[in-house]
Amino acid sequence: MVVAVERLITSDILKPARYLGNELLAVHKPWDTAAIRWVLTYPEVYEVGASNLGHIILYNILNGQPRQLCDRAYLPGKDLAAKLRETNTPLFAVESKRSLAEFDILGFSLSYELGATNILEMLNLAGIPLTWQERQGSRGSEEQEGRESTDTQSSFPLIFAGGQTATSNPEPYADFFDFIALGDGEELLAEIGLVLEEGKQAGLSREDILLDLAQIPGVYVPQFYDMAEDGSVHPRRPDVPKRILRRVATPIPAYSIGLVPYVETVHDRLSIEIRRGCTRGCRFCQPGMLTRPARDVEPDKVVEAIEQGMRATGYNEFSLLSLSCSDYLSLPAVGMEIKNRLKNENISLTLPSQRVDRFDENIANILGGTRQGGLTFAPEAGTQRMRDIVNKGLTNEELLRGVKTAWEQGWDKIKLYFMIGLPGETDVDVLGIAETVSWLQRECRGKGRKPLNFNLTISNFTPKPHTPFQWHSVSTTEFKRKQNLLRQEFRRIKAVKVNFTDVRISAMEDFVGRGDRNLSKVVRRAWELGAGMDSWYENLDRAFSAWGSAIAQADLDWKYRQVENGEWNLFHAQAQKSREDGENTQLLTPVQTRLIASLPNTDAINRVSSHSLDIPLPWDHIDTGIDKKWLQEDLQRALEAAIVPDCSFEGCSHCGVCGTDFGHNVVIESPAIPKFAGEFVPNTTKAQRLRVWFGKQGNMALISHLDLIRLFDRVVRRAGLPIAFTGGFHPMPRISLATALALGATSSGEIADFELTVPVEVDTFREKLAHEMPTDIPIYNVEQIDLKASAATQLLESAEYLITVAALAETTPIQWQNWIDTIKAKEELWYQQITKSGKSQLINLRDRLFELELVETHKSVAESMSSVIRYLGSYRQDGLLLRPEQILFMLETVAGVEFQLLHIHRNRLILGV
Q1: Torsional sign, CA 210, 215, 219, 223
Q2: Cα–Cα distance between 467 and 169 in angstroms, integer?
Q3: Whole-model pTM?
Q4: Measured distance CA(362)–CA(486) in Å, rounded
Q5: CB atoms within 10 A of CB 81
Q6: What is the radius of gyration, based on Cα positions, of the chain?
Q7: How confident is the model at residue 678 (pLDDT cuts 50, 70, 90)?
């Protein structure tokens, strides 16, 4: 059943266009013809989820499968969430507007340790029990209440999670999901869909379907596994694998083209993946370990996807994505080829954080467009010794060369990422961060140039599963001390902005990220106490308090204190048992002793035997391809500051990944770099001027004015119309809307002016524009006007409105007409107005009212009378406006009755000569 959202998605909530589901390239498949109905459910606000590349890729792939339908859902804002609860309305998918509980399967992206609370919030809003145990056990109670229940799906969809955090260590979240999808989802989700379809047709029980899913490599079904006392996980039945394989897929750039939101998103651009996986071997980096082997995308496919994607979406910016873009050898060639092809369209290229040692003039030449974007490097550590310990593979000479190249190419501000709390770190290494920044500034000075500015982010190292540093920990006290060291040091350095990560967030991420199944109750209780992801930004103290209370109530505060004190000990149970049994323990090896010595509080850990690194971990049953023995050996190499070369370009490091299950590194040699065809020069020629009358109807009434301006820009690009640009540093298309329309108001009389570089037939222009416009923005008329004519915004004289008004008292049509006549008969109706400067002034509204007419009256369901009133009033840009709200003031003045404005429709804008 479709959820009635008309009274929920209204102009009184923040950015209502988030929930419309009518974006360009959204796929609307028929509900009744689909055998399996998916919802990809992103547990963050729309602006984050709708621009996530993985979300877009999987959405396109699933909707490309026959007999499969994929819809989307996002974490609603607090205002909509409150409305859903107040009206007892379930959370819905944005396209079909159906309750999430009606679908066969819901997939959540879990890419952050503390993000599961948002998943619980969404399940609760959807009316779906939070745990797999509750979902299975609720079938009988539902049948008793008279609700239909099938043996196949119980009465709820299957709930699963994927993403980096889910793949790394799913155990803290195991109670909430029927299964976990490990690794790349492109092929895996399609296989899951086929198994679900067969199981549904065969009428299999929920448990039997999950058992079939467990046979698919990459699918982990937690309910078929038990946790031992030591936290390790083992099958509780013989027909499921002991270790679950991480899936690996080849990236296909064409699937990245899709979903062009109307609202501005976090990544408001086309994103194309050029390389998946990273073999640099940074010992702190979980994504690098979880995405091996490295796989390059063929350069011609990248170029083709970008060119097609920019034409299809109308974006003016694109991004090339990879964990290490600079290791994609074809980057300069691909970037220059696209820059040359799109040089006349004011297109910009952005890249994520790059390898500073690979940054050269070729990469500098392809970045940005008419404006130079930001540049981000990640040295990670301030001394050569620490960079060797983490296997960064970066020398001081390479760091200076990369930064200096950027400075010489015109960058005056660079963002740098550093970490503190790494294994073996001393105060000398910490202070080395400030020394390195100061040294770079001294080396990048020149006559006539501003000093090089740095924006630093200094984060607290958080150990991650499946990395060599997964056995490490640092106390929050030590983090705070090191942060204070740096704060004092940076006071003496100018042109540097420093941001530190809150140590409490780091400790909580560590506690949850390396936890076992006992943490599911902590996550649930933290959600119940209000610890959503957004709360970290709104009120960090309150969010931290909620998590702390949840940990205490679960009797796990002793374990959290170990994290806070830097004593996180995987082997608490065994160490305790060893002490109780009086066993003789062998001391740690010299390397392990040096690792422990870098921690501030080591007594408990020093008593642990030498085989500590071999004791089972909560995530050992997840087969990422990397041999645990290799991680142990790499940890020892770290403390010896030994470098492991990048196996994509040098010899094999024998990590265990390459083989039949995971494939091998795919490195493609770069084609020749095309000759630079020159920067975009904005075409400011004004050969033709067209005035367009258009409407704003239906759902498009919930698109803001700024979003509408951005929409027109993209429409013109998709239509291939020769729009003129402004000059200057930031050229903009010469599209001018006469005036803004209130959010939620409809219109049949909006006006926009377009200036073109070459003349276009009026009918051709109208046809191309209308073809790319949403159907709810109809094009009524297009006229050519003189190049020297004033802009529509300067010619505005008056506006005609139809407003729907309700009286909050019992009234009659005769009364309405009398009120209208009374207003028309008056010469003065004074209104107190507050100016922009905050001053109060009296204005005569009657002078601004030219026509007033009662169009119709009718009774509402609540028996109150509502009327449609037409008025024509002043609408000048010098501030002489008559707003719909002021018509209500006039009515209330003459009637002595309170009124409510139900709807605004602008009939037309009238221009002066």
Answers
A1: positive
A2: 12
A3: 0.92
A4: 35
A5: 18
A6: 31
A7: confident
**Exposed, middle or buried, 698 (CB in 10 Å: 0-12/13-18/19+)?**
middle
- Write down the pLDDT at residue 860: 60
* Interatomic CA distance for residues 208 and 197, integer angstroms: 13
- Note the Cα 267 to chain centre separation in Å: 7
Angle at 297 between CA 295 and CA 301, to 5 degrees: 165
- Which tens digits make up the pLDDT trace of 429-457? 999 999 999 999 999 988 778 889 999 99
pLDDT of 304 above 50? yes
Average pLDDT of the chain is 90
Phi then psi for residue 819, to 5 deg, are -65, -45
Q: What is the mean pLDDT of residues 76-97?
A: 96
Per the listing, tokens 């109706």 go with 829
- How many Å apart are CA 870 and CA 807, to the nearest integer? 16
If one compares 606 and 429, the residue with the highest pLDDT of the two is 429
Over the stretch 772-785, which tens digit does the pLDDT of each residue have? 999 999 999 999 99
Two tokens at 891?
A: 């009515």
Give Cβ neighbours of residue 130 (< 8 Å, ≥ 6 apart): 120, 123, 124, 175, 176, 524
Q: Which residues contact 528 (CB under 8 A, 6 or more apart)?
A: 550
Half-sphere exposure of 532 (CA within 13 A, CB side): 18
Q: What is the pLDDT of residues 308-335, one digit of tens each?
A: 999 999 999 999 999 999 999 999 999 9
Cα first-last separation, the chain? 53
Say if CB 781 and CB 709 are below 8 A apart: no
C-alpha dihedral sign at 892, 897, 902, 907: negative
Question: Is the separation of the CB atoms in 53 and 256 below 8 Å?
Answer: yes
Helix/strand/coil for 673: coil
Residue recorded with tokens 């470098």: 643
* Rounded-to-integer distance, Cα 798 and Cα 286, Å: 61
The per-residue pLDDT for range 818-863, each reduced to its tens digit, is: 999 999 999 999 999 888 788 889 999 999 999 999 999 987 655 5
CA distances from 835 to 714, 840, 893 (A): 35, 6, 22
Question: If 0-12 CB within 10 Å is exposed, 13-18 middle and 19+ buried, where does residue 46 land?
Answer: buried
Residue 276 forms beta bridges with which residues? 295
pLDDT of residue 366: 87
In this prediction, residue 901 carries a pLDDT of 95
- Measured at the alpha carbon of residue 610, what is the angle toward residues 652 and 246, in degrees to the nearest 5? 40
Would you place residue 565 in the very low, low, confident or very high pLDDT band (cuts 50, 70, 90)? confident
Judge whether residue 369 has pLDDT over 80.
no
For 629, other C-beta atoms within 10 Å of its C-beta total 12
SS3 string of 41-91? EECCCHHHHCCCHHHHHHHHHHHCCCCEEEEEEECCCHHHHHHHHHCCCCC
> Taking the C-alpha atoms of 90, 93, 99 and 104 in order, what is their torsion angle to the nearest 10 degrees?
-140
Amino acid of residue 608: V
Determine the Cα–Cα distance for residues 13 and 16; give it in Å rounded to an integer.
Answer: 6
Asked if the model's pLDDT at residue 734 lies above 50, the reply is yes
Cα separation of 410 and 725, whole Å? 24
pLDDT score of 148 more than 90: no
Helices (H), strands (E): how many in the chain?
Answer: 31, 29
Q: What does the DSSP 8-state code read for residue 600?
A: S
Q: d(Cα 233, Cα 173) in Å, to the nearest integer?
A: 13
